[in-house]
Amino acid sequence: MITFKGAHYPKSVILYAVFFYVRFAVTYRELEIIMAERGVPVDHATLNRWVVKYAPQIAHKAQKRKRPTRGSWRMDETYIKVKGRWCYLYRAVDKRGDTVDFMLSERRDAAAARRFFKRSIETNGSPEKVVIDKSGANLAGLLATNVVHKITVAAPPINILQVKYLNNLIEQDHRFIKRITRLTLGFKSFDAAQATLTGIETAHMIRKGQIGNAGDCHFRVFAELAA
């Protein structure tokens, strides 16, 4: 259970603010105004602290509760600005469009790709096929993953396809994340970026129906993860 002990506002108010920020394209100052209009005077710095503190905890529980993903993945990375520099958000979806996993990295290289595939497989199981773009780093990361996979699991290697048009699904899926992050004009720290992105990705999974039942209120599903 996620604890809200010591908070000056009720759990429901905090969860509403966190959900609103990670689900909709608003700035912290705009959210401050929205909360004030609902009778909750809370400054934008406090809203930021709530997101950074609670979003990762909710995201951790979301990963455990999401529906199983399919064995065919589409993987790609997109750009996120942190402290004035571009970082890389590695993401993968299955052939249905469900989010498999995501990882923010300061570098875009084979080591980062290998870390992403390692954590994705640990969470979701090994895929049968992964579609990537023409990135040599992603290919190298997958090949290294196959070597380790063969030794430790003694299973068939992951089939690797480098076909750009087959990756349209993940490229389209990036748009929701970019629409939310665009208003931040860049994160102030890597940790804050990572924490916020976990919340945004969780809200995106709820929107896609990966958690809860079809037709459920999205905020209620989000709040239940904090129970």
UniProtKB/TrEMBL annotation:
<feature type="domain" description="DDE">
    <location>
        <begin position="72"/>
        <end position="210"/>
    </location>
</feature>
<dbReference type="InterPro" id="IPR032874">
    <property type="entry name" value="DDE_dom"/>
</dbReference>
<dbReference type="GO" id="GO:0003677">
    <property type="term" value="F:DNA binding"/>
</dbReference>
<keyword id="KW-0238">DNA-binding</keyword>
<dbReference type="InterPro" id="IPR036397">
    <property type="entry name" value="RNaseH_sf"/>
</dbReference>
<keyword id="KW-0233">DNA recombination</keyword>
<protein>
    <submittedName>
        <fullName>IS6 family transposase</fullName>
    </submittedName>
</protein>
<dbReference type="InterPro" id="IPR047930">
    <property type="entry name" value="Transpos_IS6"/>
</dbReference>
<dbReference type="GO" id="GO:0032196">
    <property type="term" value="P:transposition"/>
</dbReference>
<keyword id="KW-0815">Transposition</keyword>
<comment type="function">
    <text>Involved in the transposition of the insertion sequence.</text>
</comment>
<dbReference type="GO" id="GO:0006310">
    <property type="term" value="P:DNA recombination"/>
</dbReference>
<dbReference type="InterPro" id="IPR052183">
    <property type="entry name" value="IS_Transposase"/>
</dbReference>
<dbReference type="Pfam" id="PF13610">
    <property type="entry name" value="DDE_Tnp_IS240"/>
</dbReference>
<dbReference type="InterPro" id="IPR012337">
    <property type="entry name" value="RNaseH-like_sf"/>
</dbReference>
